[in-house]
Amino acid sequence: MTAIIKAFWKPLTLIALVASLLWGVQHYHQKYQAEERRADAAQTLADGRQETINDMTVLQQDVAALDAKYTGELENAKATIEQLQRDVGAGTKRLHLAATCSGVSSTTSPTSVDDASSPRLTDAAQRDYFTLRERIETSSKMIAGMQDYIRLQCFRPGIQR
Questions:
Q1: CA pair distance 84, 131, nearest whole angstrom
Q2: Burial of residue 141, with CB atoms counted within 10 A of its CB: 0-12 exposed, 13-18 middle, 19 or more buried
Q3: Are 74 and 137 in contact, with CB atoms under 8 Å apart?
Q4: Contacts of 72 (CB under 8 A, 6+ apart)
Q5: How far apart are CA 80 and CA 140, in angstroms?
Q6: For 75-121, what is each residue's pLDDT tens digit?
Q7: For residue 154, what are the contacts with CB-CB under 8 A and spacing of at least 6?
Q8: From residue 121, how far is each of 23, 53, 93, 96 by CA, in Å?
Q9: Less packed terminus of the chain by CB within 10 Å, N or C?
Q10: What angle (nearest 5°) sits at the alpha carbon of residue 41, between those of residues 40 and 46?
Q11: Which among 50, 25, 132, 27 is positioned nearest to 84, based on CA atoms?
Q12: How far apart are CA 106 and CA 117, in angstroms?
């Protein structure tokens, strides 16, 4: 009986060794495939996040460009208004108003008109005029900037928020 056991011992050992090697190869191959799937999923996630970062970078650059555009336009408008105010103050430019002089009768002879001064705003009214003009320009530029921001950023096709 021992001769039969000895005869089968070597092939059985060889079969057991091959079976354990195959099991080990299969086990590590499954682990490799699982790790490969995990790496692919991580890469897909990383690519999606990088795309989002790139989109946000473009959006930030667009917003900065809009801000610079409207800030520049607002500064130019303020400078124009300030220059106009200085010119009116220095007398190089005049404000023209549609006004009538109160207290002047319609029967006054043309010779008495020579002594009359032209209608003019008071200093406080003149300051208020320039303040209002500056505020109107500021509001207009702010509204235009916000409308551009909404149109170009909030309704941009292909970008989900």
A1: 12
A2: buried
A3: yes
A4: none
A5: 15
A6: 998 999 899 889 988 888 887 766 556 555 555 555 555 555 666 77
A7: 161
A8: 101, 57, 14, 10
A9: N
A10: 95
A11: 132
A12: 16
Only one residue has tokens 């009116």, namely 88
Cα(42)–Cα(36) distance, rounded to whole angstroms? 10
Gap between the Cα atoms of 78 and 133, Å rounded:
9
Q: Which residue has the higher pLDDT, 79 or 7?
A: 79
Tokens 């000895």 belong to: 6
Q: What is the C-alpha to C-alpha distance for residues 157 and 160, in angstroms, rounded to an integer?
A: 8
Measured CA to CA, the distance from residue 107 to residue 110 in angstroms comes to 9
Q: What's the rounded Cα separation, in Å, for the pair 2 and 99?
A: 134
Per-residue pLDDT reduced to its tens digit, 21-75: 999 999 999 999 999 999 999 999 999 999 999 989 998 898 899 889 989 998 9
Task: HSE, CB side, 13 Å, CA atoms: give it for residue 123.
Answer: 1
pTM, two decimals, is 0.53
Sign of CA dihedral 146, 149, 152, 153: negative
What values do phi and psi take at 11, rounded to 5?
-65, -35
